[in-house]
Amino acid sequence: MKRLWLIFAQTVTVLLAAYFVVLVMKPAWLAPVVPSTPPATVSVVEAPRAPGAPGATAPGSLSGAVRKAAPAVVSINTSTRQKPRDDPWFRFFFGNQSEQEQAGLGSGVIVSSQGYILTNNHVVADADTIEVVLPDGRHAPASVIGTDPDTDLAVLKINLKPLPVMVLGDSNQLQVGDRVLAIGNPFGVGQTVTSGIVSALRRNHLGLNTFENFIQTDAAINPGNSGGALTDTQGRLMGINTAIYSDTGNNLGIGFAIPVDTARRVMESIIKTGHVVRGWIGIEPDELTPELAQTFGIKSDHGVIVTGVLNNGPAAKAGILPGDVITQIADQPTETVVGLMAQIAALAPGRPVALTLQRRQNTLHVDITPAQRPTPTNPGGK
Predict the structure, then answer these.
(1) Which of 93, 175, 326, 372 has the greatest number of CB atoms lying within 10 Å of its CB?
(2) 100: which strand partners?
(3) What are the backbone angles phi and psi of residue 16, rounded to the nearest 5°?
C-alpha cells in the first residue's frame, strides 16, 4: 500500500512540474480553441466641422473684415536722392562724395477704382520716386496728386486695372470702446493686421499737425504702418494711421489715426484743385479759461476767446477785437479751439458768414468774409 502511494505522489509531482513548465514556456498550448468569426462591420460617422477649422469662421473672428479691407492696403516704397555736400573743407577731408539714395517705407489705402491712394504726407515728402506694391504682388510707380502738410495727408495715383477698393465709413459714428483693425506693413515684414479698440476720440494738442482731431487706438501701430488703414469690424475705412506715442519708436499701445471724414474732404479738394482750399479770418484763438474771462470781463462760460487779431485781416475788417469770445459760426456752436479751427477751415473763401460774439456783457452779431488760408510757415495764425 505504501509503495502505491509513493508511486502516485511521484506521478502527481512530475505532472505538476510539467504543467508549470508548459504554462511558463508555451502558454498558447493551454489556450482554449475558439471558432473563428468574421469581423464585425464598423459604422463611421464624421463629427461636425468644429469652428475655426478650414472653411469655417470662428465665433468673434474678424477674418471677414480682413478679407474685405486687406486687399486695398498697399505698401509704399520711396527713394530720395541726397546730393553730396557742397563744402570744400568736407571734400578736402572726405573727398568727392557721390550722390546717395535713401529708402523709405510706408503704407497706403486704395480708395478709388481710378487708382487714387490715401497715405500720410510724411511718407512721401521729398521722395524722388514712389513705388506702390499691392498684396497680390503687382507693383506700379505712383505720382503725387497733392499733399496737405496741415493734416499730414497725401493723395497718390497709380495706373493699374482692376484695383481693390476699400469702402469709406463714417468716423463720426465711432465710439470709445468700438473694435478696430490696423492694417499696414510695419517694419517692412509684409502686410500685418492688428486689432484693438478705440481708446479716445478728438485727441488734439499733440503738436503733430496744424489741424488735429485724432482717433486714439490701442491696436498695435509700428513704423511702416503710417498711411495704412484703421477699419471697423465690417472692413470699412475709419481712419489713416499716422503716429504712435513712444519714446523709443516702438508701439506702446497708444496710436493715432486721422478720421476718414477729414481724409475724405482733403482728398476731394486735392483731386479737384490740386491743393486744399480752407477759410481763414486772421485771428489767434485760445481756450476760454476762468482767468481769461475775468481779465476781459467776460460773463460767457463757453466759446473761444480771441487773444490776437491780424491787421487788415478779415476779422479786423469785421470789427472783431482781442477779448471777444466767438460762441457761434454760421449757426454752429463753438466750444473749443480745435472745433473753431475746423469750422473756419470749412468756410468758403469770399462767401460772407455770420458770427456770434460775446464782448464783455454784450452779444454781437457780425458778418465776416473769410479769405483763403495762406500756406503757413508755422502752426500759428488761424
Answers:
(1) 326
(2) 82
(3) -65, -40
Q: Which residues of 29-56 are buried (b: 16+ CB within 10 A; e: fewer)?
A: eeeeeeeeeeeeeeeeeeeeeeeeeeee
Report residue 379's pLDDT band, with 50, 70 and 90 as the boundaries.
Answer: very low
DSSP secondary structure letter of residue 275: S
Give the number of other Cβ atoms within 10 Å of residue 85's Cβ. Answer: 11
What grid cell was written down for 232? 471697423
Cα 129 from chain centroid?
24
Question: Mind listing the pLDDT tens digit for each residue in 59-103?
Answer: 778 889 999 999 999 999 998 876 655 656 555 445 555 555 677
SS (H, E, C) 64-105: HHHHHHHHHEEEEEEEEEECCCCCHHHHHHHCCCCCEEEEEE
Which strand (E) or helix (H) includes residue 4? Answer: helix 2-25
| Cross-strand pairs, 105 | 77
Task: Using DSSP, state whether 255 is helix, strand or coil.
Answer: strand
The amino acid occupying position 141 is P
Cα 287 to Cα 289: distance, rounded to the nearest angstrom: 6
Q: Supply 120's cell numbers.
A: 500720410
For the stretch 183-213, what's the b/e string if a residue is b when 16 or more beta carbons lie within 10 angstroms of its beta carbon? bbbbeeeebbbbbbebbebebbeeebbbbbb
Amino acid at 24: V
Active site amino acids:
122, 152, 226
pLDDT at site 298: 79
Whether the CB-CB separation of 287 and 337 falls below 8 Å is answered with yes
Q: CB–CB of 64/235 below 8 Å?
A: yes
Best CA proximity match to 118, nearest among 275, 260, 297: 260
pTM for this one?
0.70
CA atoms lying within 13 Å on the CB side of residue 98: 2
Please give the domain boundaries of the chain with CATH numbers for all domains.
65-82+99-157 (2.40.10.10), 171-273 (2.40.10.10), 279-372 (2.30.42.10)
Q: Is the pLDDT of residue 24 over 60?
A: no
